[in-house]
Amino acid sequence: MESIWLNRRKASFTVEAVFVINITIWVLAAVCYAAVYSHDRTAMYSMAEHVMEQSVENGKKFTETEMEARMKQYMNEHLFLCRADRITVKRAFLSIRADITFHAEVRVPFIQKLLTGEKGRKISVSHEVLFAPEYLWSSKEM
Fold first, then answer.
1. Helix 2-56 and helix 109-116: axis angle, to 10°?
2. Phi, psi (degrees; rounded to nearest 5) at 49
3. pTM to 2 decimals?
4. How many CA atoms within 13 Å lie on the side-chain side of 128?
5. Measured at the alpha carbon of residue 13, what is the angle toward residues 26 and 25, in degrees to the nearest 5?
6. In angstroms, how far is CA 23 from the centroid of its own chain?
7. Fewest beta carbons less than 10 Å away: which of 53, 104, 116, 132?
8. Confidence of residue 1 (pLDDT cuts 50, 70, 90)
9. pLDDT at 112
10. At a CB cut-off of 8 Å and minimum separation 6, what does 123 contact?
């Protein structure tokens, strides 16, 4: 009779462990996705800033469409989880602004809603355009 009681007891621990391990695996998967998603968002900011800085340094003048194409290519090569849907670059008198709409390519629905929501996310990055030699005063002209 005692052996039957011990077998039931071991079986109940096994069933409880299955539920705990299952939940733990899902939580760990969500944490891993969140870490990669955080990396991709940071990389998008950095890449957009880098492309805008390259496009205006030393007086280079790139059009908005050229910068959009460079950003899209750069991001598609270097991001792990996110994909840029639409990139819009607007040039003002003293600044450049890029608006990036992106989504995370995740197959698990609740993790995708957790990371990017239903329609995805949007980030904005701006960079000042100041060409120091053009704005400095020359003492010889005075």
1. 40
2. -65, -40
3. 0.71
4. 3
5. 10
6. 26
7. 132
8. low
9. 75
10. 41, 44, 45, 48, 99, 100, 102
